[in-house]
Hints:
The chain is 33% helix and 23% strand. With 536 residues, it is α+β, with helices and mostly antiparallel strands. It has three domains: 3-175, no CATH class; 219-248 and 430-535, Immunoglobulin-like (Sandwich), CATH 2.60.40.650; 277-421, Oxidoreductase, molybdopterin-binding domain (Sulfite Oxidase, Chain A, domain 2). Mean pLDDT is 89; it is low at 202-215. The site of molybdenum atom (MO) has 7 residues, from loops.
Amino acid sequence: xxxxxxxxxxxxxxxxxxxxxxxxxxxxxxxxxxxxxxxxxxxxxxxxxxxxxxxxxxxxxxxxxxxxxxxxxxxxxxxxxxxxxxxxxxxxxxxxxxxxxxxxxxxxxxxxxxxxxxxxxxxxxxxxxxxxxxxxxxxxxxxxxxxxxxxxxxxxxxxxxxxxxxxxxxxxxxxxxxxxxxxxxxxxxxxxxxxxxxxxxxxxxxxxxxxxxxxxxxxxxxxxxxxxxxxxxxxxxxxxxxxxxxxxxxxxxxxxxxxxxxxxxxxxxxxxxxxxxxxxxxxxxxxxxxxxxxxxxxxxxxxxxxxxxxxxxxxxxxxxxxxxxxxxxxxxxxxxxxxxxxxxxxxxxxxxxxxxxxxxxxxxxxxxxxxxxxxxxxxxxxxxxxxxxxxxxxxxxxxxxxxxxxxxxxxxxxxxxxxxxxxxxxxxxxxxxxxxxxxxxxxxxxxxxxxxxxxxxxxxxxxxxxxxxxxxxxxxxxxxxxxxxxxxxxxxxxxxxxxxxxxxxxxxxxxxxxxxxxxxxxxxxxxxxxxxxxxx
Length: 536
Ligand SMILES: Nc1nc2c(c(=O)[nH]1)N[C@H]1C(S)=C(S)[C@@H](COP(=O)(O)O)O[C@H]1N2
Ligand SMILES: [Mo]
């Protein structure tokens, strides 16, 4: 290595050690500047870019963005080193540059750690110090801004810096920020315990309940296709009626653990339910606040089975789930505050800065527009919006604000987070039917799946084995609730094992057939018939 190469390597290595130090110190505040930077990029990027990233990268978009930012930081360090070595600025110019870069790095690290956590002074300052110590010492040990040491010593210095970062990681972990303070309600805790605690002031955690659907028929062969379809062959003498629970079929009502998760966040807000309160305010007669246990024990709280789907889901995609929620009608919360005739929108504001709105007319009309505080009989998991989130059956998931902190009545039209990025405002779900399973039992082949038509409901599902030339009516299971999808299956006598072009289409409760027109998710949700070619 000549001097220039060594400088470039030295600065790039310092940047890498800086990133390692940042990640090592992260547990101290419960987040890190890299995630904050990614969040700033996501929120500042134009809707079209954010949407493209979601559509092409899906759930990988956020980690990919963080990786990109990390690589850019290392490249910038190498670039600065190449510049100073290549253009030979004077010693004093070089010192100015090094000082400037150092100050920038210190400020970015500190601001990032402050923003990543709850802003407690000693936590973010200590995290900043822990993160900056390894790269700082690496620079000092390698002779400041003009490295002139041998390779062996460089490697030794690097090893020392990484060791220092490891020490920082241990320190950060042991001082780690608890998810919430005190012994208030935690995500995923028994709802009964929360209600009891309100009465007695104690909490008794219990073990979760699980609902694994029974599977029928021994599976001889099974594979999953890219279309989220499980194709399998069961014993020929397995129950010829199939039921609705054969391999690949989702449970009619799923659990919190298998519910899809979508949000704009690199890391989700940690809300302390003990300190949280729901503010009901805006253009109302009297604003008021509710505590978490006020909502949990609300007289109108009820259990509700609801299907939600993300508007960015592709035809046949897995961003659709059904769960049992504990929830309180939003109109019950608002009526207590008194809503004037001039009210237009009911705006929900969230801890992550997300907002959504739904017309007051819809809220006052519908008992099923609710604020949910529980799932599967427990408090919400953090990723589903602990401690409280909205649910609007029949609208895409984007309308269902998670981590709600305030419900605000507005006299004007409010533009929601995704609406501002070019997605439709109303987000009424398009009628859909997805194949989830194709199974052979002897000469009989069953196609099974789910169909959802929002508030219109589902009246029928048809299945084709020949790419849509001929159709047969599927058998439908009763929906688990008026707010949920319906499972279907169709069994046909098909002795030959050649390729089958399976297609499904639904008819909603108004008698309208699901459109065959294929559209992408943006801006109003995907449409088109789900089809999959299988051989079994
Ligand atoms: N606060 C907040 N709420 C949000 C989002 C978000 O990014 N922030 N994403 C929305 C979107 S696009 C969807 S599809 C649903 C997903 O809810 P889930 O993760 O509980 O399934 O949350 C919605 N609510
Ligand atoms: Mo979504």
